[in-house]
Amino acid sequence: MRIARWLLVLPFGVAGWYLGLLAGLLIYQTGEITCPTEYIVSGSCNAPWSHAVYLFALAIGAGVAGAAIVALPTLVAPERRIWVAGVALVLGIVAATYMLVTTAAWLPFVAALICGSVSLWLIKRNL
Question: Of 24, 45, 65, 122, which has the maximum CB count within 10 A?
């Protein structure tokens, strides 16, 4: 059972990324669905607040991903959970930095960094 839990650490980290992606997409889609028809042009919402909804979805999605990438592998790890959380945070920072360099999107980078760090802090405090 212990080996199986160690083998699940990496897939749970990847699942954390997908959880953040899903959260961001749900927020964005909610903004698109609730857009008044007079602001829809070519199937896209051009309401004055649509850009704010987009940025909010990016920040929340990245924040959820940052927290989940640290928390989920820690929950499934059979031992050395603080170490697992630290490694997950470092790998998450590396991935977020790569995305920052390739896209220059600062908001999701900062949100993921803050939420991942808070997740590590909470894990250290509670274990």
Answer: 65
Q: How far is CA 60 from the centre of its chain?
A: 7
How confident is the model over 69-105, as pLDDT tens digits? 999 999 999 999 999 999 999 999 999 999 999 999 9
CA torsion sign for 42, 47, 53, 54 is positive
**Would residue 81 be called left, alpha or beta, if left means φ above 0 and alpha means ψ between -120 and 50 degrees?**
alpha
- What's the burial of 126, exposed, middle or buried (CB within 10 Å: 0-12/13-18/19+)? exposed
Digit-coded pLDDT (tens) for 28-71: 999 999 999 999 998 888 999 999 999 999 999 999 999 999 99
Phi-psi region of 45 (alpha: psi -120 to 50; beta: other; left: phi over 0): beta
